[in-house]
Design brief:
CATH class: Alpha Beta
Strand content: 15-25%
Distance between the termini: 30 Å
Largest sheet: 3 strands, mixed
CATH architecture: 2-Layer Sandwich
Order of helices and strands: HEEHE
Amino acid sequence: MSTRDMKIDMRVRGLFVRNYIDLRNVRHRTVKGVVYISGKLFYLRDGKPVHSYEVSRLEREIHKIGEVEDVVWNIHQGEA
């Protein structure tokens, strides 16, 4: 993993933490500037799934991170 990809990964993780997203059910990695996100997105505060409009907002914020080429989602929303 390149230094650039590691920095992007750290910023994506920070974005999830700032938005109170439970990291136990979601995985992310960056390869050549492309961020891959998989798993399930749940809020820490109440355990409910993250709404689709929030996923869209997160994607816009990830694209604002320098050197991000694309974001590929493979998430499954629903019950834990």
